[in-house]
Structures are given as C-alpha cells and as structure tokens.
Design brief:
The complex is a heterodimer. By secondary structure, chain A is mainly alpha-helical. Chain A is 57% helix and 0% strand. Chain B is mainly α. Chain B is built from 42 helices and 4 strands. Classes of the chains: A mainly alpha, B mainly alpha.
Amino acid sequence: MSTQLDLALLVAVVIGVAIYLCLSSRFHRVLLGFLLLSNGANLAVLGMSGDPSGKAAALVADAPGRPPVDPLPQALILTAIVIGFSVAAYFTVLLYRIYTDGQNATLAGLDDPGTGDGKERAS
Amino acid sequence: MVTSLLWVLLLVPWLSAPLMVLLGRRLGPRVGWAALLAPVVATVSAVGITLAPQAERQALPAYEWVPQLGARIAFMPDGLGLFFALLVSGVGVLVTLYAAFYLDGSYRHHGRFYCFLQLFMGAMLWTVLSGNLLVLFVAWELTGISSFFLIGFLTEKELSRRGARMALVTTSATGLSLLVGVVLIGQLYGTYELSAIFTQGVPPGGEGLLTAAFLCCFGGIAGKSALFPFSYWLPNAMAAPTPVSAYLHSATMVKLGVFLTARMLPLFGDLDVFAPVVLSVGLFTFVFGAGLALLSNDLKAVLAYTTVAQLGALVGQYGWSPQGAAPFGDILHILNHTLYKAGLFMVVGVIDHSAGTRDLRELGGLFRRMPLTGVVALIALAAMAGVPLTSGFISKELLLESGLELFHSRQSLLGALPLVALLLGSLLHVLVALRVAKRFFGPMPEKAASHFHAPSLGLQFPASVLALGVMGFGVVPAAFGSATGFFSASPEVRHLSLWHGFTPVLLMSLSIFALAGILFAVGTRAGKAPAGIPRWLEFERLFERGVEGAPVFGQWLDRVLGFTRPSHFLLLIVGGLVTALAAYGIFAWEGLVQRISLSAPLPEGSEGEPWIRFGACLLIGISALLAVRLRRPIPQLFAVSAVGLGIAFLYVLYRAPDLALTQLLVETATLLMVLLLVIRFKRDRASEQPVAPVSRGARVIRFGVSIAAGLVMGLGVLIFPNPGQEHAGTYYLETTVPLAKGANAVNTVLVDYRGFDTMFEITVLLIAALGCLGLLARVRRVGKPTEVKVSVRDLFPVPEDFILRSVVVFGVFPLNLLAAFIFFRGHNAPGGGFIAGLVSALSLILLVFVSGLGWVRSALRINPVTLAAIGVGLAVGTTLLPLVFGLPLLSHLYVDILGISLGTTLVFDLGVYLTVVGVTLKLIYPLMKSVHGRSAFAPDELGHFYAEASESIDELESVPGTEVPPDAEPSPETRRI
C-alpha cells in the first residue's frame, strides 16, 4: 500500500471539486473553482517530493541523521503560489469589471451581443 | 577626426530625441526651432566627413557589439553611404524647418513628434553608414518602427492608425525576409562585415545559396521601397502629417531599398537572376505606379503613387549595370527624385493648409492665390515630367539612353521591354504632371475659396530651396553630373551637357511630350475626372482581409460550433485531456502499476505522523466538498479558504515551512480580495441572479468530467514520485552552503539557483497588477443603476471598535518588525522577501480597515505601483549586475562582514519584498473602495488612467478625501450603485 494514498485522494477531491465549480455559470463559483484548482495542482507537485515521513526539512543541519526532503518541488510550488495569486487577482478584477460593465454576475450575460466585447450597449 | 565626426553624426539625433519630449512640454509648437539643432549639427558633420581625405575615411576603428553573433559596430562611409547621410541630414534640416511652420497650435504632442522624427533620422544614419550587415539590419528595422509611430502620429484618426499598422506589418514582414537573406550571407561568407565580404570572391559552390540570399534580400527591398506587389502601403502611409510624408515617404526611408540594392551590388550584381528580377519588378512598378497615380484624385495619393513608380525606376536602373558595377548616373537619379518629390510633398502640405482640401477635383486657381508656391510647384512638376532646364530632364534622358543601349545590346524583343516600359511610364508621368498643373490655373471652386487663407512665407521657404536645386542642376548639368559622380561607385565618367544634338533620345522625349499633350487635350475635352482606382487593384483590401483573418476565423468557428457559454470550451479541454491521459494510462498500465508498488511501506521514526496527515487530508477534503454543497457565497468562500489553510498545515507535515508560511499569507490576501468582490455581489444581490436551467444530461456530463479529472490527477500523484531517479534537489542540498552561502535550500533555489524564475515571477506579479489597473481604469457604465437599500454598516464599515483599533494601530509596528526578521533570516531559515512582503502588505491593509484608505494613502506618500516598479528594477538590476564584472547572469556577490556573509541575494530579495508590498496594496485598495460603490480611483489619479471617451467606474464622487464612509450614516435612498 502506498503511503501517499491520502494525498492522492485529497488531490482527486480538490481537483474534482475545482473543475465542477469552474463549470458553473456564476462568476463567484468559477473564481472559487479557480482558487481550488491552483491549490490542487500545487498539491500534485508536492506529491513528487515523495512521502515525507521520517525525513528532515530542506535545511542544512536541521536534523542530522535523517534524510532531507527534495527542495526543488517546494521551490517550484513557491513560484506557483505567487503566480497563482497574481492570476487570481487579475481574474477577480476581470470579473468585477465584467460585472460593472453589464450588471451581470453570470455567464449567461456574456452571450448577449454588445456586452462583454467592450462595445457599448444601446440603452 | 573622421571617427569623432562619425560619432557626432550618428549620436546627435538620438541624444537630442528624448530632449524634444521634455522641451515639448514647455515650448509647445515652438519646440520645432529647438529641434533644428540636431539635423544642422548632423549635416555639418556629414559635410566634414565628406571633405576629409579618402584614406582617413577608410581606416576607421570598429567596436564589438555581440561578438558571439558577429555583430560589430563598423562604419562604411564610402560615396554611397555619405551621399545618403547627407541626404538624410540635409533634407532633415528642411523638413524640420517646414514642420516648425506646419505643426501649429492645432496639433498636439509636438515634442513627441520631433522625438520620433529624430529617432528615425538616427536610425537612417546608422543604416546607411553601417559596415556590418547585422547592425545595418537592426537599424533598418528601427527606421520601420519609428516610421510606425510617425504615420500613426494622429492617433485619434482611424485612417492614420490603419496606415501605420499596414506599413509596420508589411515592412517588418518583408524585413524578416531580409534577415533571412542577411543570415544566409553570413553563413556563406562566415562574416557580416561588408568590407570583408566584398573583397572575398563567391565561395566555390555558393552561387545557389547566394541566389537565395539575393531573393530574400530583394523581398526586404521590395517591401521597404513599396515595389510591386507591396506598393499598397505607401499611399496608406500618407495619413501621416505632411512633413513626415515629405521626409520618410519620398526622400529617405523608402529609398532604403534603392540604397540596399546599390550597397549589395558588388555581391549580387554578378548573379544570373539579378538583372531579370530587378529590371522586371522595378520597371513594372514604374508603369504600374504611374498608372495608379493617374487614376487617383487625392493629391497626396497621386504623389505617393508617382513615388512608387520612381522607386521602381531607381531600383530597376541597377538591372542594366555592367556586371556588378554601378550604372552611370545612379546617384543623379536619386538626388533628382528627392529634390522635386520632397518639394512637391511640401507644396501639397501648403495647399492642404491653405485650401483645406487635397482633392484634385476641388482645387483650382492656386497660382494666382499663392504665386511663390505656384512657381515652386510648376518647377517640381516640370521636373517630374522631364521638361528641359530641370534636373528631371537630365535624369530622364539618361534613363532612356540606358534603355536604348540595353535594347541595342540584346537585339531582341525581350530587350525592348525595358525601353517600352520607360517610355510608357514617362508618358504617364507627363500626363500626371499636366493634370496636377492644371489645378493651378482657372477658377477656384467655391468650397476651397471660402476656406482659403494665404500661407506664411516660412511654410513656403523649404520647398523653394528644393526647387532652386531642381532648376540649378537642370541649367548646369555639368555640375549636376560631377556633384553626383563624386558619390557614385560607377567607373564611367561622362560629361553632361544640355544640348547633345538631335539624338534618338531627344526625339523620344519630344514625341512623349507631343503625345501626352494630345492625350491630355482629348481627355480634357471629354471632361471626365478619373473614377478612382478600380477595386481589384486595391491590394490594401487583400491585406486588411489577411490581417483580420484570425478574428474572422474565430467568429466563424464560434458560429459553427454553436457554443453558447465559455465553459463549454473548458469542458471540451478538460474532457479531451482526461481522455488522452486515460488512454495513455491503459496503454502503459503495467509499468505504472509497478511504479505505484515501488512506494515504500511506513519508514522508521514516523511515530503516528501518517495518521495526523490522514486526518488533515480528511478535513481538507470535507471542506472542499462543502464548497460545492453550500449555496450562499460567503460560506462557500470560507470553505474554499479552509481548504487553503488546511493545505498550509499539510505543507508543514511535508517539511516545507517556507511553503506553509507563504500559503498562509497568500490565502489570507486572496480571501480578503475575493471577499471584497463577493460582498459587492451580495450588496447588489448579483449572486442571486437567475441562471438558465441546466438539463439533466448536461449536469451528468459536468459531474462525470469533474470526477474523471479528479481521478486522473489523483492517480498521477501515486505515479509521479520516482525514487529510483537522481534528483536535482540533491545537488542543491549539497551545495547550498558552499555555493549559495545559505542553509535554507528552498530559499537559495529561489534567489540563486533558479533566480531567473523568481525574477520573472515577480514580473508576472507586476504585470498582473498593471493589467488590473487597466481593467479598473476604463469602465464604461452600461445598464441602469439599481437602487439597493442596504445600510452602510453592512457594507464594510470602518469599525469603531476601540479594542480592534488599538490592537491594529499598535500592532503595525511589531508586525513590520516581524517582517524584517523574516526577511533577514530568509537565506538560512524559513522566510524570505516574499513572505516578509506579504506580512507588511497585510499589516498595512489592516491599518486601512481601521483608519481608512485616505489616511493610509497620505501617510504612505509613495505610490504602490512605483514601489512595485522599484522592486522589479532591483531584482532585474541584481540579475544584470554580475555582467559588469564579467560573470554570468545572477552569480551573486558576497561580502563577509563580521563573519556574516552578506550578498547581493539580499538586494534581490528586497526587490521581491517591495514588489509584493506594492502589488498587494495596489490590488486591494481599489477593490476596497469599490465595495462601497465608490470610484476605484482617487480623483487625482483619474488623469493618468482615464481616456477621454470612457466613463467612470461606478459613481464618480469628485470630493477628495471622502473615500471612507463618514461616521454619520447617510439615508439609504441616497446611495446608488
């Protein structure tokens, strides 16, 4: 039995929920789905460093005698968190902008011709 | 001496260009007089170089630029280069003078105009004087870019934007062809130095490659000089202000094609394909352009097409060069065309200025109203027609003579074609000249007369200088011949005189004039104005269609597929990915199963830890499922946040303290940000807007795809770890102290080993923040404002709670001390610039919550975006610094002070810190205001971001300093969204 089964199940749940939310038609649910998706992807990368039980942190002289964990996935995730944060910020503002443009917080509002493409709707 | 003059010549326009922008703000239209300095200095130094002895001009130093590529800054001020340098700087003086009168107070951004003009001038000078093909190419492209800005200078005009785009796309696409040609030559000769290439013979067996190089280069030449079939961009570039048309699109830039043909003549002249290609394309363009000129009605378009025609002839003349030597009179033709065509463009500008129109059908009687310009125009038109006593006559006689010689030497029908093309083109030119000249006589139509005001003398002066040149060279052809012969590489020396006796060429000229006169008389009798250019000859329409092809294709696809919602695409993408991965999984099942069983059983010394992890995973999973289950947005958001915080705990269990800290803080910042949006939705009841009912089948598909995606990723987690392989991380761990002087391997990987990643990561952060600014700045309000009766207290009030206030106010300083601590320990222990930045930013946001945005903003003094830009600047600077010491990028430097290693990594981390603080603040500020339905920007910031046409985001409250809701609660009726 794999010792990372718990993480695998968690990733499955988080990613599944994320995709489900992303396919929603309400703006805030899509946004939440996106947040979960980036977290789920980070977890999947984390899994690559292997089971951490009994290992030391990637600090020199943290706990001599025990093997340290692989620092590279951690560094990659650190970068990914930051980029995920910037994209989430941009996404939030984008949704806000679409909302103030059309007073509509669902995807259905994007279908109307004349909204969402920057052209002013005849009012 | 020559070297320093060269540097003055090449650098003065570029040094002066940025000054123009600064001066333009102060001086307005008068900046044109200050702009005169650079071209005058350039002209003087160009004359100085020309007068220097030949030997001194040949022994010039060269400087390495990119030695790995073979790009050296070398100069080649031979006759050809110097002639063009004189042309560029001399005409530059006249055009700047003209522009100083032309661009009056009705134009805007004068400083910017002269800045672009001088950038262009500098690029031109580099192109013509460079002795290295790569440098030449770079400068060549720079001329195209600066001309893009000049053509599109009147940004508010649609025509001008389109013309600029067309010119840029056409010349840069053909420029790529030139680059291919240049690289081929470099590969063939092993060097990009022109002098070395010219002295070498063709390498054995290299003819084929050289031919390919020539064809590629000729693509670039044809694009730049608007030869057929690229001739469409030049008339469209006429949307530029007239000084630009006179300078770029008749006198200098479009002649670069001619220049390059002449420059590469020693290399390409011997090729078998050279003469046929150059002659046929050039002379066909000659006839084609002249024909289109006759059909056009816009005076500027007429001139543009005659320019196209003349460029064809100028390139084409190299086709009859005797085996790689320049033909006699090549420079003479170029000078002649520059003199009269730049003059004509200036005249058109004067007419446009005075009569308010450039349409030939609406003009008349100009001679009586402005005699000086009339005389100038008639002289220039005479030169275009090739009337004796003008330089145009000499030029045309020489062209016809060469055509006749070619016919005699070939003695075949094919050899007669160039002559026929020349005759036909000349005939058309005479007709065009007659047609324009007629507009100077007769009555002036009502419309133009009502608008007419006399032009100032200064505006007419530069064209008069050019007209004097046209006349002077026409009357004294011997001087014309010797002056241009000095620059020409042609070995032939001929004495030019006005009267050669009754030669066949003279007879041809006379019959052209006679025939043109008859045709014109007949045409006038019939009294029909040309109908304009037929649609099938408007190549620009094909171009536009090509450019707009991508969006049109997208719209077509959208229609065909019939997807009504963007999420359908997501469904398709995720479904496709899952299917592909599942197919691969089935295919490679056995190997994958082995991988899974490789995972070791519980290792030693883990004392029940897996159970803690299992519990954590269980809690996170439940939160995630709750996020789907919960209906109301705020609890849903908290569920998502719980997932994020749980993951932070999981990071702790995975021995990743840096990650845990970062995740904790990022999760907080994200929660705040999304909360602001969700509260706004809640306030407007937007989260309860009805959505279209979803069919049962669609729901099943959505469910199925989500579950499948989750399963595939989960399986991936089991499969990805591969303990059998060597990891890069091992190397990092072993070398982190000796190489990177830090015990925290994760941190050293970020700032040192993979510092590039981090640098670009914070750049992404800055770009995202700038993108958000753009989104927030230009919102058009659509739809009716809805009235919501919610009390201000529900919306995000500034709390008056004394305890919270005091905790925050007294907490800010310790929190920032903590940030400093985290920052400094980062290199050796968990921490670093990013985490410290988030702590600082969040502490400031807390402060905003209790004391209001206006107060914090004025207390901070510095604009958050400036802070972020400084941060990125520091990071990039630290990255580039080692280059100064000749070390590879990002090799950090260390100083030992009191036994502690301090390195530039600290500066790099400081950059990260500043960027994070700036970006986070900039993102949260507007959102915080928007929650109250207020303008996202303070009124003093509006000027920077608001375009004229756009409206404010939400309600614009123009009273400064009221970003924070006042303590007194306004009545609900007054609050609108």
